[in-house]
Amino acid sequence: MDANPVLAETIRGNWVENRHRGAFAVIDADGTIIASAGDIERAIFPRSAIKSMQALPIFARHADEKFHHTPEELALACASHHGEDVHVTKVAHFLDRMGLSVNDLECGAHVPTNPAAREAMRAAGGEPSALHNNCSGKHSGMLSVALAMGIPTAGYVGREHEVQKQVRAAVEAVIGEPLSEGKCGTDGCSIPTYAAPLRAFAFGFARMASGKGLTPEFALAAQRLFDAATSNPLLVAGTGHADTLIMEAFKGRVMQKIGAEAVQCGAIRNKGWGYALKCDDGNIAASQAMLAKVLLEIADPDDAQRKLLEGYAHQTIKSVRGAEVGELRAV
Amino acid sequence: MDANPVLAETIRGNWVENRHRGAFAVIDADGTIIASAGDIERAIFPRSAIKSMQALPIFARHADEKFHHTPEELALACASHHGEDVHVTKVAHFLDRMGLSVNDLECGAHVPTNPAAREAMRAAGGEPSALHNNCSGKHSGMLSVALAMGIPTAGYVGREHEVQKQVRAAVEAVIGEPLSEGKCGTDGCSIPTYAAPLRAFAFGFARMASGKGLTPEFALAAQRLFDAATSNPLLVAGTGHADTLIMEAFKGRVMQKIGAEAVQCGAIRNKGWGYALKCDDGNIAASQAMLAKVLLEIADPDDAQRKLLEGYAHQTIKSVRGAEVGELRAV
């Protein structure tokens, strides 16, 4: 198997220290490749980068008609949130509104992703609950689907549960590829994740951004989800995170979502282009450098947006004493 | 530039998620390559993996005659210690014995690497000092060199300070390659780090293990340093760390040292073989999987040693709820 190209590297002093390989595709809804690097047909696990696709059954199964999800709740359904108070409070309220609680979440508990929130919890002697899990919003959305379908919520994370079948069908419909038990794993939050070609995820985001090739129902659902996420970027990630800052800076024009192990997916909404990127070795910071370079080239950034992206494309490495000793940079 | 081979990968469910490339060399003191993979002539930053080489001026400049370093102090000079009480106490005593203190260390302060030590410090409301820096033992050794040379210690981390010139000369003598300002950076602890071919570091460890090709003075110094490190594996890293566990398990037969950004160097002492390994992307866990596979193949492990190494060659990946969902494995 050929190696993907080096798309990011770290420099220490005047010599390369680390190399990060990867692939990306930028595609329109007709399947035309706008830009790409590496093997875009290799199947990757999209992980949390496609939470907006996984949220489509909220509309397909009419959970939205039953619960009238707010834009904030839809944003949380698309989120890998950082467990800050704002996230935890809103997810708890979302569940409460459906007559559910933290006890119905099957994602497991982990400490908040946000360092300040983690520190505050520690200082208060608190313990994390499933509400703090970065996926608790997505899980709440999945629970709303189960309730709308009138089926038991217990076991909703299982591959054979009707909710996950609905999620799988929605993703297949959007990316235009069958998903297979032969390329399947379990995500950190216990739901199934299916690998598919990198190209297909970019294509799916282009279709969600443009509505082209989707049923009118899915096209509208995709627009509502992208509107919700890009209008509430703090809820989709957290304070200071790249996804939040990028979506804030692009004021609705860019949908951006990270996935575990260095996946980056999103859309340039005004152009109807979708993109998908994976750093082969799972390094998040390197994938953000790669993403920044792609967005610099395809997203027509203004000065402020460019400045933000340049900060990810060139990340300073410091010594313990704080001296600049190198950088992680996109190449 | 050709890509190094994939030497480790992560599997999620039944599909590959991440790929880690790298190179390694196992060499004897005559320069014969016992085993290798990838581009072993590519210059890499050895970082902390060659602290035992960097400690040689303690002997070359007769600091050992002045201060009579204990084996524990020599082990700390070769260490990336984890900031546990045992490390901090012994480094403080080492400095005190030389009429120095934490204020003379120029490595900077960071929280203990060991999670329990970090937690205890946090619970006690303590602040880390330079003693907790994983390099404080190496720095103390370097300070001993400055004192033995009768020169000011201030600025001993600088590239032009006589201590660092001595360190550079010792490394050059052992690896048999000139080091260059053209391939130089600053380590996290503020001292210079020079890149050189991966092969040369393996060769240097073979020469230190066997004494072959070294001056009698360096041969003896290398033996004392390896004896000290392998007799005090807890001081060289910390509780539960691979380096500590591997050196404990091999009872003096294997010298093993990690370096930042996924470098692994060491020696099979009874065979006189040195090895050096670098994971291209800087992933520590992947480099430990690669290292484990190399040691399984070349170090003649007994059953207990094999079991330990297999645990690094196959590292379980769990979901937030603790279910096994994949593994990081050497390939």
TrEMBL record, chains A, B:
It holds the Pfam family Asparaginase_II. It comes from the Bacteria. InterPro entries: Asparaginase_II. This is Asparaginase. It comes from Devosia epidermidihirudinis.
